[in-house]
Amino acid sequence: QEFQKRLGILNNEVELIDNKFENLQIKRNPYYREIRISYPNFATKFKIKFEKYPILPSLSFSKSLSRIITERKFNEEEIIRNWDIENPPHVLEIIEKICEIASKQVNLEPLKENSQYLFLNDVSVGEAINNLSFKIHKGKSIGIMYDINNVEHRLDLLNLFEIIGGLQLDYTGSIEIFGNPLKSLSKKEKEKIFLLPPPYDSVITNMKVKKAIQYKLNLNEIYKERKNVFNTILKNAGLGQNIDEIIEDFIWETTYKFSRKKK
Question: What is the pTM of this model?
Answer without folding.
Answer: 0.73
